[in-house]
Please model this.
Amino acid sequence: MKKIFAMFSILLCCLCCAACSSGYSSIEEAEADGARLGECITIDGVNVSGMSPAEAFEAVETAHTEALKALYYTVSAGEDSLDISGSLLPVAFNTREVILEALSLKKYWPAANGARQLHTSMAADSGELKAALEQQSASLQYAPENAGASYDKDKGGFRYTEHKDGRSIDFDDLTSQISALIAGSSGGNVTAKSSPILPEYTTDMAKADTQLISEFSTSFAGGTYGKANRVFNICKAADMIDGTAIAPGQEFDMNAAIGDRNKDNGWKTATAIKEGTYVQEYGGGVCQVSTTLYNAVLMADLEVTERSHHSWPLGYVDIGRDATISTGGPNFKFKNTQEVPVTVSATADAKAKTVTVRIYGRPLPDGQHIELTSKKIRALSSPGTNTEFDYSLAPGQSKITRKPRRGSVAESYKLYYDADNNLIKKELVSTDTYRSITGIISVSPY
Model:
């Protein structure tokens, strides 16, 4: 009796398994066989009763498409967030499997018993999902922005562009979080794991690289140096070089910076020194700007590559510390030996009768600063005066064409001081020989 009961149980199981299996391996096979779904069947809420497998697949997938449009994943990172529609992600449903399951159900089902409700499940390939999230969440990940500094001539200082940190998103972790929601057939909120990306150049660095290194002023007060045209030329030259940024290793050329001094370029005639005498020429006075710049450059410890002194020492700067320039003649040049740009600020105050040059960049190391000193170390022999004929003079007339000037030799030094104002080094800058200038008296030959 027990043996008969066991055989009956096995037969019953087989019948049940047969009843639960559609007997089809694919929708296409069922469609080709003319199969139809039974009564009172819904898949994800879609009534597929009596449909062919292909019709049921299309109806359910259409519903899925609409459902994904309404399904959102809110991704947050820091203070930023964005919504990603499920329709933009590679979400797949096991619709085919569920339709095959539906085909295995009894064909007839009394309406009074209610619908037979089946549900699909959602899934996404991790590699495809990660690629989609990287694209859709790109705005949450961004590169850092370096700080910047620009010299403002009107302000007389620097304006800074603040640096901005970047952000890196852990898309592996984000993919894992979204995958879990998809597996649960739901949308939801997730917080992306993120890390800051620091910029290479911060605002503090920009401010540290635009410190005042040196400052030097000269005066053009008094009758000799304060003539209106000369003051105009000084102000023009100072304004032309004001705010000039010089890159590391770049050479500054004074003549190139202010251009040829002539009437067409807007310069005025003023007293200048030429061939050992005072003359009136366009741009007279610009040498005071180049001289002021020269002293500031020395105090900033930059490399002077070209410099010439005047025919004789000048009243607005100590002997041995002048720098003459001329259109087509002597020039003043220096090289930026710092690892960062340096900026020249030059301002002329027509009311106070001063011109000031400031050099900005990285301060000297360890709080050091440089002072300048110079002195005449010897005088040259007296040159005397020569007499020359001038046929333009009336009989018996004479005039002093050039005054004699006794030359001299001067030495200039840089004095390096530490942060406690202790002298740590003395360095010779130049030895300048201001040659003696022979005087000339012009007389009439008649």
Notes: The chain is about 25% helix and 35% strand. The radius of gyration is 45 Å. Confidence is low (pLDDT under 50) at residues 1-21.
